[in-house]
Write a structure and sequence with these properties.
Blueprint lengths: L8 H13 L2 H8 L3 H15 L4 E4 L2 E4 L1 H21 L13 E6 L1 H18 L4 E6 L5 H7 L4 E5 L8 E8 L1 E6 L11 H6 L1 E5 L9 H7 L6 E6 L2 H10 L4 E4 H4 L5 E4 L8 E7 L7 H14 L1
Parallel strand pairs: 3-4, 3-5, 8-9
Antiparallel strand pairs: 1-2, 5-12, 6-12, 7-10, 7-11
Amino acid sequence: MINLRRLDLNLLVTLDTLLAEHNVTRAAERLHYSQPSVSVHLARLREIFDDPLLLPGPRGMRPTARAESLREPLREALAALEAAISPEHPFDPAEATQTWRVAATDYSETTVLLPALAGLRQAAPGTRMAVIELAPPRIARQAEQGDVDLVFHITTDAPESLHLLPLFTERFVLAGRRGHPRLKRKPTIAQFCALEHVIVSPEGGGFVGATDEALAEVGLSRRVVLSVPHFLYLESVLASTDLVAMLPARLVRDNDRLQIVDAPVEVPGFEMSMLWHERVHRDPAHQWLRESIAAAVR
């Protein structure tokens, strides 16, 4: 058996050209080699294959039976190798059939994916998107293993191993139902603390958040009477009760059922970013997806 480690790719390219030209001189011209170099290659190939491969004939050189058996497989193998190492063709979203997998919360589904969805569907109708629940402790591993292509998460909690593109900065506002009697204007700090509040606790069951930390710094507290795991349910609660909540402004700015006012307490906002792994960083299709989503959000 032939040991592949003894084979130089240049030797196979030379053999393919010799089998096409049946002439050392013409093969050398096509390969931009000197004639002696091609002859040396042929001698080496004869040694490796233990066969003359090309024999002198009346009209140049004629291939042996072994060489004839190599002709098509060798041509196909070289063509496949050339295709594999050639620069990738520009990504054409109109012809794409990818299935994208993105990790998001219901907040980022609404503020990032929803604004981008119509444009993605129009530009790349043959693609699909699977949105999976964001699991912050598993972000890095999921991205590394290819379980997710993109992650939408706050910048401060982003794993250092992932690439990051900031999308926007978010601030908090006070929201309640349209016509809420206590939200006709910005409430005082005392009125704010007396209201009954809802809080989103992604981990479940929490009654303390960034607002409570800000109030604690000035020796105050509020009444948190309901804790829910998702923003979408919270919006329905607000619209049908007199409960209020501190919510990201982008989430509720177009909701006609809610009344939005500034809160009397300054709650630090956050930066939302798009994250991805090095394995897809230079992939043209993935670059297009990232650019499209970023443009839609901005």
